[in-house]
Amino acid sequence: MIWQYALRRLVASIPVLFGILLVTFALARLIPGDPCRAILGEKATQEVCDRFIREHGLDRPIPVQFGIYMKEVLRGEFGSSIRYGLPITRLLIERLPTTIELSLAALLVSILVGIPLGVISAVKHNSWIDVLTMLWANIGVSMPVFWLGLILAYVFSLLLKDTPFWLPPSGRLSAGMTSTPFYEVWGWSLPESGFLPATAKFLSNLHILNALLTRNWVLLKDAVQHLILPALALGTIPMALIARMTRSAMLEVLGQDYVRTARAKGLPQSVVVLKHAFRNSLLPITTVIGLSLGSLLGGAVLTETIFGFSGVGRTLYDAITARDYGIVQAFTVVIAIFFVVINLLVDISYAYLDPRIRLD
Amino acid sequence: MTSTSVPLDAEGLSLRSVSLWHITWRRLFRRRSAIVGMVILGILSLIALTAQWIAPYDPYQVLIGVEPVQRREKPCIHLLGCPKDKPQHIMGIDGNVRDQFSRILYGARLSLIIGFATVTFAIVIGTVLGAVAGYFGGWLDNLIMRVMDVLLAFPALLLAIAIVTVLGPGLINALIAIGIVSIPAYARVVRASVLSVREMDYVSASRALGGSTFHILFRRILPNALTPLIVQGTLGIASAILDAAALSFLGLGAQPPTPEWGSMLGAERNQIFSAPHLVFFPGLAIMLTVLAFNLLGDGLRDALDPRLAHVSS
Amino acid sequence: MKSKIFSLFGVLVIASLILAACAPKTPAATQAPATQPPATQPPATAAPTEAPTAAPTEATPPPPVPIATYDGKSLSVPDCDYGGEFKSIEATDKYTVTFTLCRPDPAFLSKIAFSVFGILPKEWIEKTAGPDKRTTEGLEQPVGTGPYILKEWKRGESITFVKNPDYWNKDAVIGADTLIFRWQSESAARLNELKAGTVDGIDNVGPADFEAVRSDPNLQLVVRPALNVFYIGMVNTVPPFDNIKVRQALAMGIDRQRIVDNFYPAGSEVASHFTPCAIPNGCVGEPWYEFNPEKAKQLLAEAGFPNGFQTKIYYRDVVRGYLPEPGRVAEEIQSQLKQNLNIDAEIVVMESGAFIEAASAGKLDGLYLLGWGADYPHITNFLDYHFGKESQQFGQIPPEIYEPLIQGAQIADPEQAKPIYEQANNAIREFVPMIPVAHGGSATAYRKDVVNPQASPLSNELFAFSKPGDRNVFVWMQNAEPISLFCADESDGESLRACEQVIEALYSYKINGTDVEPALAESCEPNADLTVWVCKLRQGVKFHDGSELDAEDVVATFNMGLNPGSPTHVGNSNLWDYYSYLWGLMQK
């Protein structure tokens, strides 16, 4: 049943994926200016730029370029970046883990703080705790990410300097700290290219995972320290959303007859709340968590800018500025596919959590 | 989702003669958060309307040679012990030697306009698309909703950045971009309410009586979408203001010397350590405004239909 | 259900194909609002989008044909009418290279010292040449003769270098065993890292932070001499700027001192001439007009604008040494124009590429804010590019300006060229093609214990010659990550600085200066009319791959950069910007 549904949804998302390809291509080509002048600035000359545009095939008719692009995508290739001269797949392997690590950390923060806040607030409905929590949640949702990031950096890396609470203002690791990939530590010999080494490299760029795998505790501490502030900045909005949603879902469930029955049976409050109420309010919470992942990827542009991460968001923003069509297209497509997949997973989990929901 | 019969409201008030709006207002006033939101909004609107009278300085006036102030000088408030012989600047001096407090006040005007303009733009287009899709169904519905899916498949801010880059930086273009990005939400809401009442008796009756499609759609069906649209719109204003500020922060939105909070903050972001007041106050202003709309939106949602309360925010 | 999906899919495919086919005209219907040209942008910006795409191939001239011959020992062209500078480059013996020029070039040594022309080993050049671009090794693992060897470039994070034990000038090296490059675009965050002690030196201290660094007992500020110029451009064929009195009125009506005092960091200067004084003959001739709003208003009235006029101020939001705060300065100029001359100017920010294209083609119908940073420290690098006969940037350059420039470019001795450049500078002052405003200072900052802290006017700090106290690692934080380390085909300062630690050219610039001194060459001597330069190479210099430097490496390097017919003429973007702009590619 669920598999059938998932398959159907996948097929149905093919046109959307095609639309995504079309939109990213159109957007990339519609950006005014050309990569040559974007790279060279005031030093650009007509002669150099004419040659550049010819050599990169940017003077060909747009449908032809779209055709070439589609062909590459269908072959699973993304071409190479005009600006970095590297295969875009490689750039993805380098930069996607940064963003994933950041987003997951932010999500973790938001879940670990948001759900308890929501539960407490629902249980102590209308008390001052509830009022404070919800006020805090509303402030959280209203906070500009970039502002919060700057303020956090100001407080933790400048005001709290020389205290144990000091946190580094930028970067993923301290200078001189190197993260030796786990496959090198384990002495694996990987082939030069292919799926396996790409995956291994991808995973090793998740610094925290890599540090855990190689049991490098110094590295772990360093990576975690660098991740705290960005994760807090990025995680605040989803945290507030989750807290709000948890509260209202819990309130609804707590008012249901079966919860009252459970209470009447004399079950302790904690059991009622956790076993009966919370489990049944998981459904809307999952939805919010899924939806938050999307806003995390968007917020990553700003967070990465402020904290000096070279992640997908920042690279994409730079690529838009540099008219690096290849990166713009590939990165947006990857992000969009992520989105589609997450939405799919949310829908499926919805059905899984509540069998009453009909799938069609 | 929306019920069409006048709900006898949960509090047990059953006053037939009282309109739905009246009840809504009353419910709204019973919610603390909504009141806080409305109060903040009221103050903001007042500031926006009277900025030219209450601002101590012209927001564009460069004070070099006019007053003995330094560039990016810290706030000087007489009540807090700033020497009386110095001119008072309660939020300090900005990077162009202008009074920041006056700029913040004028910024309220812009932010409110940004919020309402983008949401109106998105609601109008979203409503038309959603209504057409829901009412006519079939391939048209499929086509429109798939396009909406495509738009929804990108993180809103990223898509807005890309669209602004295409259009060229500027406040109007930023508004258009954010408008485009938020269309799908409204289209979905409208489509859902159209679908829910399309086959109802009173609609069929209207059809049988020979009402034109236009008439049926706009007089019989769309009023049902009003409630969710108002809620979605109020919350949408909040996120539109946030997104516009983010675009301005990146230098893609309002351009200097416009006193827009996001661009004020973005322009001085490297002074966070040397002149934190230039980053703190605009950010605070953005946050309060967005907070007001969020609180009001929440309140409205609960007041307009208690059963909507648990639907996603 | 199934059929529905398929039909939908079909409809979408067809719709998309139609959209794609129509793209050049109406670039995608889903983006309909996007095609409306924005109201605030000049028509000039709308044009470039369509120009390359809408105009099919018939308009473009046939691509140029390579004309050079290369046999490993010499690179030459049959004749000099291709517009470039080199006639031939020959390895006359193992350690001698002879450059034969098509015309005299007094700036030859200044140019040859530029790090883009760093010498690479011949085998490496051939080995890393891919079919249409450098291989990944070529882009990321440069092999040179420099004091540091590249160890690892962790993209997105850092670059690590280690000391070269076989460096030819080992005794001069005092730097740490390990050098690490990091980057961070926000100046506040860079300073914060320096204060936290996580880095030893940072580039481009924020203009507002100069005092904070100076007063910090743990830090030292090194001001970088200003080898750049910020100017307010205008096009002298567009009304009202076609009236010389309007231009002169603008030249007198803007308080440049106030701009520099308020928006430029310490070490900046009000520009007395277009070229900075640090460059020989840069500021000979009369200095720029004094600020005189009354006289300016009078001139404006004489020109028929007693009540001012309306115009625009175009700029791009890109921070450069010559314009550290673009938006702030645009606002300041706007308010000055209003205050001093009653001119109403609207500020228009443009996307960088579109701005540059419109500005260099002279298509902007208002004032524009642009500048120039020196590539090599010679006056021709400033004046010839902007005020040469072909320049369209300011409309039409009058012969009074460009004629002396042609003359001056033939003379090596600065003393002898002085009267000619006086003439040129005075003509620029008289005709006001633009208003030079400032030479923007910038600064680096280091921890207090760093010995021999550097701030090179050309931004080529060589960290082998600075010592980070008693630490063994030197961490440098600059604005951005290098694009690639194949610097022959790069042009941004962030890439070049990383390459300069590894690769050396025949000459080099003195530390913290602009004078040249021999590096891989022991000497380069010209003939009497400056058209033949004979360079004697240093013997026994080893590349990082162990091979020894000889004359063939030099010829191979220039063949790679100059000869489009060579299979080694592949780079990163393949722009070869500096090879083509400073020497001219061998093609026609």
Give the termini distance of chain B in whole angstroms.
15 Å
* Shape verdict of chain B: elongated
DSSP helical segment count of chain C: 18
DSSP strand count of chain B: 0
Oligomer: heterotrimer
Most strands sheet of chain C: 7 strands, mixed
Average pLDDT number of chain C: 86
**Class per helix and strand makeup of chain C:** alpha+beta
Side by side, the strands of the main sheet of chain C go 5-6-7-19-8-16-9
Annotation field: number of helices of chain B: 11
Order of helices and strands of chain B: HHHHHHHHHHH
Distance between the termini of chain C: 63 Å
Query: Radius of gyration of chain C in whole Å, from Cα?
Result: 26 Å
Largest two-chain interface: A-C, 77 and 83 residues
Could you explain how this protein is built, in words?
The complex is a heterotrimer of chains A (360), B (313) and C (588). Helices cover 75% and strands 0% of the residues of chain A. With 360 residues, chain A is mostly helical. In chain B, helix 9 packs parallel to helix 10. Chain B has 313 residues and is mainly α. The radius of gyration of chain B is 23 Å and the shape is elongated. With 588 residues, chain C is an alpha+beta fold. The longest helix of chain C has 21 residues. At the A-C interface, helix 1, helix 2, helix 3, helix 4 and helix 5 of A face helix 1, helix 2, strand 7, helix 6 and helix 12 of C.
Keywords:
heterotrimer, A: 360 residues, mainly alpha, 0% strand, globular, C: 588 residues, alpha+beta, seven-stranded mixed beta sheet, six-stranded antiparallel beta sheet, 18 helices, disordered N terminus
